[in-house]
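REVIEWER CHECKLIST
Item 1: Sequence provided? yes
Item 2: Single chain? yes
Item 3: Sequence as submitted:
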Amino acid sequence: MASTIRRYTTSPIIGLGEFYGTSYMIPNLRENLDNGNIRYKEIILKEGMRLDVLAGIEYGDGRLYWIIAAVSGIGYGLAALPGTVIKIPNLSDVVKFIWIIFRLKSWQQEEYH
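Item 4: Structure as written out by the authors:
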């Protein structure tokens, strides 16, 4: 079975044993961008610009808007106003970083018999 890299993982929530999704990638992406481990360029958002369109232009896939939103400190992509400083991380650096985090989480979850 092939592994899937996911943006969200499940975390326990108080009460009745239900779960909700939380992103473990977002704080890690921000930290590694701030530490210089992920290269990026900055732009100033202009009127009519959208993060999904920027992701489509930069990465070839508008669904990756969440990466730009995450490192730019934007909780909801459509809430980005003109004049907002947007960080667009290098996708190769992001992919390497996500792969490392994915492997670390996989190793932590392995059971040894």
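Item 5: Key structural point noted by reviewer: The first strand starts at residue 8 and ends at 12.
Item 6: Recommendation: ____
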